[in-house]
Amino acid sequence: MRDDMTHAAVPTTDDPTPLPVDRSLEFRWSALRADEAGKPRRSELVIAVNPVDADHCVFEAWLEGPCGVRTVLPRQPVACRRGCHAGLVHVDAEPDGRRLLRATFRPQTPGRPLYAQTTLLATAGLAPGAYDPPTARIIDAKRGVASA
Prior knowledge:
- This protein is mainly β.
- It is built from one helix and ten strands.
- A hairpin with a 7-residue loop joins strand 6 and strand 7.
- The two termini are 27 Å apart.
């Protein structure tokens, strides 16, 4: 297994659940990191994907920790493919040929991605294998609330 992904083999099934293409998505990886004194502290890499149109999204990433928030990737428009196949939602964000995010989850259980991969874990300073499986949520753009 590569150091920048989390994967769980889950059989696919046909599901008529509509694709949340007009909804924002948020992915989080939690990790324990040592502070300056060597004491373990919990940090989270957060990736936000906000739709612009069928082929683009606004993408940003930050690290939340006990000392505050640090930008990992500033807010920017990127090419983003989102689709639904066999009842699963697939998200790919790849600006300039670099893959920032690839993820797959069931719309009815978005809090547990079946697969998520990002190069931003290393950019954020999280060591391979030092983080928990990711969580995800779909944010209802109409009401500004999240479902998980």
